[in-house]
Write a structure and sequence with these properties.
Layout: E1 14-28, E2 34-42, E3 45-51, H1 56-60, E4 67-77, E5 80-90
Parallel strand pairs: 3-5
Antiparallel strand pairs: 1-2, 1-4, 2-3, 4-5
Length: 92
Amino acid sequence: MSRRFVRQLADGENLEEVYLVAEKQLRANRNGNLYIQLDLRDRTGTINARLWNAGEPLFRSFDPGDFVRVRGKVQLFQGTLQVILSHLERVE
């Protein structure tokens, strides 16, 4: 599988790639369940990503500036592409 740069991503695409974490936040949804919101970056741009039903241990396992391997699906939300993650792990 070839490298998928942020600029190449398209709505509906399944994604498994390594990106740099630019920013991260642990937030609560309307029901109080925690999720991770982060900005993933490469040399072509930045994309917002969310991992629903995530806990604090996973949130603390990586920091901005770390590389993470992500798996998920790209979707168009309010006119902007984002990634809904199913997997997230720090790359050593």
